[in-house]
Amino acid sequence: MRAAARRTAGAALGRRARLRWVHLLLGGALLMPYYLLANTVLSVFVPSANIFFPASLWWQFGVLGMALVPAAVTALYPLARPLEAGAVRALCGVPKAELAAGPSRSWAERRNTAAWYTLHLLAGGIVSGMSLAVPPFAAMMIVVPLTGIPDELTRAYRLDGLWPVLAPVIGIATLALVVGVSWAAGSLLARWAPVLLGPTAADRLAEAERHAMRLALRNRLARELHDSVGHALSAVTLQASAARRVLDSDPEFARQALAAIEETTREAVGELDTVLGLLREDGPASAAPAPTLTDLDGLLQRTRAAGGTVDCAAPGGLEKIPPVVSREAYRIVQEGLSNALRHAGGAPVRLRIALRDDDMEVALENPVRPGSTPRRTGGGRGLPGIAERARLLRGSSAAGEHDGVWRLSVRLPLRGDAR
What we know:
The chain is of the alpha+beta class. The chain contains 13 helices and five strands.
């Protein structure tokens, strides 16, 4: 099995090396138009040069250097980045997550793409030239023991003595050099691709902000569903339980409880549509408005219909409270009343809302039944949700039991931006 695993790993490495070599040849092919352009321009200043068969190796490298300048300028085009990233994913084996997907949006991204494109064409041009020139030379050297050294080469370079023996070694060595250079260049490009074609610091920051916004929206949806639908289900459960107990002895009360269930569920459907509207593209336009403290009377009526007793003291002018504060305060009161319905057992609940110059205070108190706690055994989400709502508005909350009375106190600033 180890031998099979080694063969599989070797085949994978061979395939990767071949694909990277193809990627380098692609870079050499992309370089050719720039190379011919630079060669033509230089020939204007050196009329005696043969632009198709230059005699000087330095001339060729000079042309190569000049060709990389317009290549880098071309890569400033925004769509160059996704095109190069696609080639790298397909041929260099770089994971998709490490490469940017969209076009270049900033100058930093364009500069990185230009640097990558230049590196790709430079390495591709060198490897392509070696891949074209070395194999014929290596083949000629390998067959020297059979064919002998041509007389013109012997006279020109004095190739005698051990040359017939060394020639095949030189041929094999040059082929190995091409393979080694191709492998090193392919590995270099694969290593630098995530750096130059991957997300920039600005991309990562923008993605982190989008992720934070998605999490914030999810938390908001969770709070809204918990507070609105959870309150409605608590009230409906208590109403249905009371109606079941007195269905035979007090049909009139049972009818009132069923009517209250109908009204509560209707309100819950409306609030559910509000929450789901946040998920729709046209959510704010099509969804029902979120309830605020101006809807407090309806909330108190539904709580009383569910069997709760609420003593409420609220000042006038609730409609003047900033909308975001009013919405969050409504949800806080709703969650506090839901807890009281579940745990107070019909005991009176005191609700106090006080307005000051810069903040608003919401306080709820209710006796705790013996053997009951305001928190569910499994750990409810109501109190953490209240604390989170207050914290988002730069306010504070406190909750706890003292002398058999459960108290919830929340302070919300009326001025300043929410977090």
